[in-house]
Amino acid sequence: MITRMSKLFVRTLRDDPADAEIPSHRFLVRAGYIRRVAPGVYAWLPLGLRVLSRVEAIVREEMDAIGAQEVRLPVLLPREPYETTGRWTEYGPNLFRLVDRRGADMLLGPTHEEMFTLMVKDLYSSYKDLPVTLYQIQNKYRDEARPRAGVLRGREFVMKDSYSFDVDDEGLDASYLRHRGAYIRIFDRLGLDYVIVRANAGAMGGSASEEFLAVAENGEDTFVRSPGGYAANVEAVAVPAPEPVPCEDAPAARVVDTPDVPTIDTLVELLNSAHPRPDRPWTAADTLKNVVFMTVTPDGTREPVVIGLPGDRAVDPKRLAVAVQPAEVDDFTDEDFERYPQLVKGYIGPARDGAQFLGAEAPAGVRYLLDPRVVPGTSWATGANERFRHVIGLVAGRDFIADGVGDVAEIREGDPAPDGSGPLSLARGVEMGHIFQLGRKYAEALGLKVLDRNGRLVTVTMGSYGIGVTRAVGMIAEAACDEKGLCWPREVAPFQVQVLATGRGAEIIDRATGIAEALDAAGVPVLLDDRKASPGVKFNDAELLGMPTLVVVGRGLADGVVELRDRASGSRREVGADEAVEQVLAVVRGG
Amino acid sequence: MITRMSKLFVRTLRDDPADAEIPSHRFLVRAGYIRRVAPGVYAWLPLGLRVLSRVEAIVREEMDAIGAQEVRLPVLLPREPYETTGRWTEYGPNLFRLVDRRGADMLLGPTHEEMFTLMVKDLYSSYKDLPVTLYQIQNKYRDEARPRAGVLRGREFVMKDSYSFDVDDEGLDASYLRHRGAYIRIFDRLGLDYVIVRANAGAMGGSASEEFLAVAENGEDTFVRSPGGYAANVEAVAVPAPEPVPCEDAPAARVVDTPDVPTIDTLVELLNSAHPRPDRPWTAADTLKNVVFMTVTPDGTREPVVIGLPGDRAVDPKRLAVAVQPAEVDDFTDEDFERYPQLVKGYIGPARDGAQFLGAEAPAGVRYLLDPRVVPGTSWATGANERFRHVIGLVAGRDFIADGVGDVAEIREGDPAPDGSGPLSLARGVEMGHIFQLGRKYAEALGLKVLDRNGRLVTVTMGSYGIGVTRAVGMIAEAACDEKGLCWPREVAPFQVQVLATGRGAEIIDRATGIAEALDAAGVPVLLDDRKASPGVKFNDAELLGMPTLVVVGRGLADGVVELRDRASGSRREVGADEAVEQVLAVVRGG
């Protein structure tokens, strides 16, 4: 059955939606693929649903091919299992919570580790049952603080999530690699330009973890690559600590007056003029910047954290966010400074709870973390915890220590790769998939054990794997559109061909319908623009809608020809009207 | 790819789940098709999901065939549109409500009239755009007071809901009939024994309305049929009022002492002995029973209602529930009787707010409704609103009137059909589908208007149509199972064939695998029981799982034969091992 534009539930819009920041969002709305219903919540109109269903089908095929078994768990879930693993609290405001008519706490599933763990526990009891991999394609819910970019970051979205269960680490490795292979096939078929990078496991816990990022200039994620093959999300880069520096000969630290130095640059300038060093001038890299912020744990507790890092580096907010998980970061306000008078705004120095530094009282209840580059023996100019004064020659390990490492400084173009594989280059991307080895965290918390070969109970080890399905639709649109509209790759296009009848004569409509019906009979999904509209309107709409091949039946028909257009390249050629179907079939099938 | 029992994520259970009241629930859980996650919330395991997907596919095919267009609206919805139509309140505790991180009220969609109305309003503006019919297959949410019977009445369930939009009543009639036809084809294909009955539109508003009920002894719905073709849910039976009776000659009513008559029967006995009638004895049908209960409106307001009906009939709780919608019914407690002293427990008589009856003070704030059979002129024995006293010869219309009609008495076997088509017979069923003409209620509330042929704005008229998809799986299971387990019809079976290797020899396993692979290659979905288990375990499991055809490869193989069994009929026959595939294909394809 051919689909006719005159009947299709779609209306194209001339104007961009007010909230659309990026092309895919703009075009998906304007072309009538999606409609916003609430912040981060979208309706899928017929054209959009066709693309979404194609993507789902590809994901399903590749998951089935690695022996994963499809199930469907509920969206509406009881609190208890998430309470047991701590995620009821850890998810904080990102979790949609509700209370049912009997007063029971429930949630909308953000991801289903708990439920799959319990389901396997319910059914399985022996190593002979394993390995097993289960998956579902299903709505997920996260109450994002900033839903954005249409379906790229929604609060209700479709995700393929799968979970592997193995009796030992080797099994987990194998399950992980099978998923990795399936993901490569999926994203290849979706026609996305993507990279596989090391990832931070985030709130999920676990160890080995990789992300599939679609390369995109406006992507939310930043990743690094080295010539030697290192690739990681900046969130996951662990900066290696250099070797300690000998400091036996280092002079004692001394406090100096530093009035009127509102910035690192003015401090460096003052040091070079008032306290010049004989060997080399002060630079920002010689200063130790101490940044204070507030962490808010999921239960609402606010704790100040100071991070010391070289003055020539900024804190990367996303690396910081990852480092403090499951807590969230909040600003350290002027009221907070009043509450912690030991933290002198603009002059914060290293100081650790319970320790003494240069006579300053260590601020109680403040955690102090140090950038990995601040190794023992390095000497720094830094705040003296006193207004208008800094200290110079302060030696790490000798004059101050930290509560731990705070590896949250920005990663910069040219920084060395952690594995020594050369200088890093930076680019941006959007997370399309995430695979990781959860290990035994959830199985332990929920008691998923099986009998091993020797009759002993062992805890099962798990992997967790996700693909953002609605997000994939957004990213395919984003990657393939041009200034005129969408350009769908064949694998996911809602229709392979759009036939445009651009003229009034009955002959034109009849011929266009005939071509559409012949293509349909040959199994090619085809959209026929049979509307009473001008050729200009039809051309513009066809370019906005983005079917891969356009067949224009118009004035040329008088000379026995119709036009074939390739939407992506814009190339066009005339073919005899009688051979149009054959030619289109060759294009569609030839790829 | 054949599916092997040794790998399939399924475990059969020997024992019935504690909460399972009906066979389908018991078997779906025991056979590993579904698992309960929370009250009324189920997980679909691989076998269950295969059936569910088959049902979804059939529904999709038939909806597409009538030109309905598939979309997918969100589950998580904003409050405003439901506030506008009043359903935010009317749904009462049946609606899952939640508050997002910004404090916005949201809900989980119980059904989507509002959202579809707004979507059509968003896209369409002219009569030329209509008619259009849209549908989705999607999770729905209702916080049922009593989720029961597994997937038959859940709190999270899959529904196909569709909505038609027409410019005039003739269009709506046509859309309605198209749906009716599609539903007939769907339920025929699903192999269900069903009836189409008049229905009450319930909370949806609207007028013409029919239900598709699967006939089932343990069904929640009761329906009636007449020899002349009348069929209705008892909830929708409108009992016609008889003609008024002349009462000019009726004697005046009089109050009589009636101590010690706790029941209608004892009252009738006392009347016959103390106040006999010359023409005929008193019967229960001569008494007017006044039943009091409390209605609770969605905003929580409690209002007493008294219903007067012939003493030989009981109130039907479901007809009552429908009659008071959107209010709910609650018991009238002893405390309530204290609060309304005019309502004398056991002696309630007709009395209407603001009216006088026999000197009794009419109870303020009590609504009084009368059964349609209590027509003007009929004479009754009834409570005198005074302890130990009744009144006889009380004439409707002369001595008392009502605030309205209360058509909530039970319908009985043999009652006349409202349309005069003969005596009614009663049976029970489960609602599988519901189609109804909503009319303009939602379009009016949400401002969905289009320009008509004459350039005037007219309100669109709508139909709303639902099928319980997860419920259909439950009902198919319920209709087709026997004492041993499930018996799937071919159209929805998870696998067409189950091949059992019942023996230890490598030859048996090899031959069973070969047959399974040949069937698979021929496009027949096949499940191979390759487990190391006894023949008894395999037979029992196969009968529990319910694939239509079983192929048993066992001891007979030594003589070159295998056994084919038909699960539903239990018939079995031996065929040559070499011709097994051909024979099975004939069975599967021949139907």
From TrEMBL, chains A, B:
<dbReference type="Pfam" id="PF03129">
    <property type="entry name" value="HGTP_anticodon"/>
</dbReference>
<dbReference type="GO" id="GO:0004827">
    <property type="term" value="F:proline-tRNA ligase activity"/>
</dbReference>
<keyword id="KW-0067">ATP-binding</keyword>
<dbReference type="Pfam" id="PF04073">
    <property type="entry name" value="tRNA_edit"/>
</dbReference>
<dbReference type="InterPro" id="IPR006195">
    <property type="entry name" value="aa-tRNA-synth_II"/>
</dbReference>
<dbReference type="InterPro" id="IPR004500">
    <property type="entry name" value="Pro-tRNA-synth_IIa_bac-type"/>
</dbReference>
<feature type="domain" description="Aminoacyl-transfer RNA synthetases class-II family profile">
    <location>
        <begin position="35"/>
        <end position="489"/>
    </location>
</feature>
<dbReference type="GO" id="GO:0006433">
    <property type="term" value="P:prolyl-tRNA aminoacylation"/>
</dbReference>
<dbReference type="InterPro" id="IPR004154">
    <property type="entry name" value="Anticodon-bd"/>
</dbReference>
<dbReference type="InterPro" id="IPR002314">
    <property type="entry name" value="aa-tRNA-synt_IIb"/>
</dbReference>
<dbReference type="GO" id="GO:0005524">
    <property type="term" value="F:ATP binding"/>
</dbReference>
<dbReference type="InterPro" id="IPR044140">
    <property type="entry name" value="ProRS_anticodon_short"/>
</dbReference>
<keyword id="KW-0547">Nucleotide-binding</keyword>
<keyword id="KW-0648">Protein biosynthesis</keyword>
<dbReference type="InterPro" id="IPR050062">
    <property type="entry name" value="Pro-tRNA_synthetase"/>
</dbReference>
<dbReference type="InterPro" id="IPR007214">
    <property type="entry name" value="YbaK/aa-tRNA-synth-assoc-dom"/>
</dbReference>
<comment type="function">
    <text>Catalyzes the attachment of proline to tRNA(Pro) in a two-step reaction: proline is first activated by ATP to form Pro-AMP and then transferred to the acceptor end of tRNA(Pro). As ProRS can inadvertently accommodate and process non-cognate amino acids such as alanine and cysteine, to avoid such errors it has two additional distinct editing activities against alanine. One activity is designated as 'pretransfer' editing and involves the tRNA(Pro)-independent hydrolysis of activated Ala-AMP.</text>
</comment>
<dbReference type="InterPro" id="IPR002316">
    <property type="entry name" value="Pro-tRNA-ligase_IIa"/>
</dbReference>
<dbReference type="InterPro" id="IPR036621">
    <property type="entry name" value="Anticodon-bd_dom_sf"/>
</dbReference>
<dbReference type="InterPro" id="IPR023717">
    <property type="entry name" value="Pro-tRNA-Synthase_IIa_type1"/>
</dbReference>
<protein>
    <recommendedName>
        <fullName>Proline--tRNA ligase</fullName>
        <ecNumber>6.1.1.15</ecNumber>
    </recommendedName>
</protein>
<dbReference type="InterPro" id="IPR045864">
    <property type="entry name" value="aa-tRNA-synth_II/BPL/LPL"/>
</dbReference>
<dbReference type="InterPro" id="IPR033730">
    <property type="entry name" value="ProRS_core_prok"/>
</dbReference>
<dbReference type="Pfam" id="PF00587">
    <property type="entry name" value="tRNA-synt_2b"/>
</dbReference>
<keyword id="KW-0963">Cytoplasm</keyword>
<comment type="subunit">
    <text>Homodimer.</text>
</comment>
<dbReference type="InterPro" id="IPR036754">
    <property type="entry name" value="YbaK/aa-tRNA-synt-asso_dom_sf"/>
</dbReference>
<dbReference type="GO" id="GO:0005829">
    <property type="term" value="C:cytosol"/>
</dbReference>
<comment type="similarity">
    <text>Belongs to the class-II aminoacyl-tRNA synthetase family. ProS type 1 subfamily.</text>
</comment>
<keyword id="KW-0030">Aminoacyl-tRNA synthetase</keyword>
<keyword id="KW-0436">Ligase</keyword>
<dbReference type="GO" id="GO:0002161">
    <property type="term" value="F:aminoacyl-tRNA deacylase activity"/>
</dbReference>
